[in-house]
Amino acid sequence: MALVNPLHPDHDPETKKLSEFFNETLGFCPNSVLTMQYRPAISKAFVNINKAVMANEGRVTSALKRMIAWVSSNATGCRYCQAHAIRAAERYGAEQEQLDNIWEYKTHPAFSEAERAALDFSLAASQVPNAVDAEIKERLYQHWNEGEIVEMLGVISLFGYLNRWNDSMGTSIEDGAVESAEQYLGKTGWEKGKHDGSRY
C-alpha cells in the first residue's frame, strides 16, 4: 500500500475546487493530490503551479507537454507518472502513431525534429547529473524561442517533483491511468510496480 493513504476528495474544499482541472486532464483527481491534502497549502500550491505550467502561451502544444512529461518520468523510472503522462497526452490529442511509438521518438517518423529536440531536452534535463549541454541548447534554438523553452522546462521541473513524490510515496495508481499505460506502454514492459497498492 502507499506510504501515506490518500484523503477523501472532500477533505479540503479549496483543493477540491482547484482539482476540477484534473477532470479534463486525466478524468479523475490523482491520488497524489489527495495525499498532498494532509497539508492543504501543498496541495493548493501544487495544483496552481500545475495549471500555470500546462497553460499554452506559445507553440508547445498540450500534447507535446504531456509527452515531455512522459520522457522525464521514463528517465527517472516513475511508473505512476509515466501512466499519467501518456493518458494526458492521449486526452490532449497526441497522434495515435506517436502514442503507439513514444518509446521510439528519436527515430520514428511520427515525430518532427522540433519534437525530438524538445523530448531530448526533457531526457537530458531529467538525468542526474544533469545532461543539458551546448548541443541541446543549439537544437532547441533551431525550433523554439525562449518562452517556449521556459514552458518546456516548467513541465520537466514539475514532473521532477511528481516523480520524487509518487515514487517515494508509492502512490496507488488509478484504474484510468493503468488502462492508458497498458494500452500504449505495456508492449514494452510497463507495469504498476510499487504503485499496485499491495507493496510497502
Notes on the structure:
By secondary structure, the protein is an all-alpha fold. The chain folds into two domains: 9-54; 60-195, AhpD-like (Up-down Bundle). It is 61% helix and 0% strand. The chain has eleven helices and no strands. It has helices at 13-18, 20-25, 31-36, 40-54, 62-76, 79-91, 96-100, 113-126, 134-141, 146-169, 175-184. The longest helix has 24 residues, at 146-169. The N and C termini lie close together (6 Å). The model has no long low-confidence stretch (mean pLDDT 94).
Q: Features of this protein?
A:
AhpD-like; Carboxymuconolactone decarboxylase family protein; peroxiredoxin activity; CMD-like; mainly alpha; 200 residues
Structure classification: mainly alpha
- CATH fold-type name of the largest domain: AhpD-like
| CATH architecture descriptor text of the largest domain | Up-down Bundle
Give the class-level CATH name of the largest domain.
Mainly Alpha
Tell me what portion of residues adopts beta-strand conformation. under 5%
Uncertain runs: none
CATH fourth-tier homologous superfamily of the largest domain: AhpD-like
Helix count? 11
Largest sheet: none
Compact overview of the structure:
The protein is built from eleven helices and no strands. It has 200 residues and is mostly helical.
